[in-house]
Specification:
- With 234 residues, the protein is mostly helical.
- It folds into 3 domains: 48 residues, no CATH class; 119 residues, no CATH class; 64 residues.
- The chain is built from 11 helices and no strands.
- α9 packs across α11 and α10 packs across α11.
């Protein structure tokens, strides 16, 4: 990205810190040599998040691969020059440093080539998590699945186990979050959840509700201050 990068890596030896120190250090030396600069290239330490199961892996993959599209840097994930998406799904040669064996864990009944195709299909359907679970259960309910995933994501955010940027993955639109006919009693809690769990700014919420940002901010603070500090998001 413009001022940072994302990587999903496997660490069989538990040496992520050593790996990142070498990666960042070597790249900083190269960049300073190439552009005749001195001093630090990266600000602060990297943020590491342990991926523990398929849902969390898919959330991370969606965020990383769709990030350039969301930022307006390209129209399709495979078009971004600095992404490994095209190589991951078989649209470009796979470089030596890139492992795609994890695809077989997501699609154990496939060959690697078939898994690449199925993953690409999921990522272009618009709702990858729903598509992934639908493969094994045709009766899966889309709305129920999205509620479960967002509930999980919100709880993990409160526990500090996921970066705040993951809030935007597969989030509902503001129109869905504030349907016509929503009562004033429900609106305050909806404002809180929309900001905290889904990552919309208070200004964006204010524009949707056609009120001033100050009014939304006042409601948000009131709801926030009334909630127990560890109460899970609904």
């Amino acid at each position: 990205m413009g001022n940072h990068f994302h990587a999903i890596v496997t660490t069989p030896h538990g040496n992520l810190s050593d790996f990142m120190e070498q990666l960042d250090g070597q790249f900083a030396k190269y960049s300073n040599w190439r552009y005749q600069r001195v001093g630090h290239l990266f600000q602060g330490r990297f943020r590491g998040v342990i991926v523990e199961h398929d849902i969390q892996l898919l959330i991370a993959l969606c965020y990383v691969f769709f990030n350039p599209v969301s930022a307006g840097l390209c129209s399709r994930a495979q078009d971004y020059k600095w992404s490994t998406y095209a190589a991951t799904v078989g649209l470009a040669p796979c470089p030596s440093y890139l492992s795609i064996d994890w695809l077989l864990a997501l699609f154990p009944d496939c060959t690697l080539e078939e898994a690449q195709g199925r993953f690409h299909k999921l990522m272009t359907e618009g709702d990858p998590l729903f598509g992934y679970f639908q493969q094994n259960d045709a009766a899966v309910d889309r709305d129920a699945l999205r509620r479960v995933v967002r509930s999980y994501t919100g709880e993990q955010l409160q526990l500090g186990m996921l970066p705040q940027m993951y809030r935007s993955v597969l989030r509902s639109s503001l129109t869905e979050l504030f349907p016509d006919g929503m009562g004033l009693g429900s609106r305050g809690n909806a404002i809180y959840i929309t900001h905290v769990q889904h990552g919309y700014t208070l200004s964006e919420i204010a524009r949707e509700l056609r009120v001033t940002p100050g009014a939304v901010s006042k409601i948000f603070r009131r709801i926030r201050d009334s909630r127990p500090s560890k109460e899970p998001l609904k």
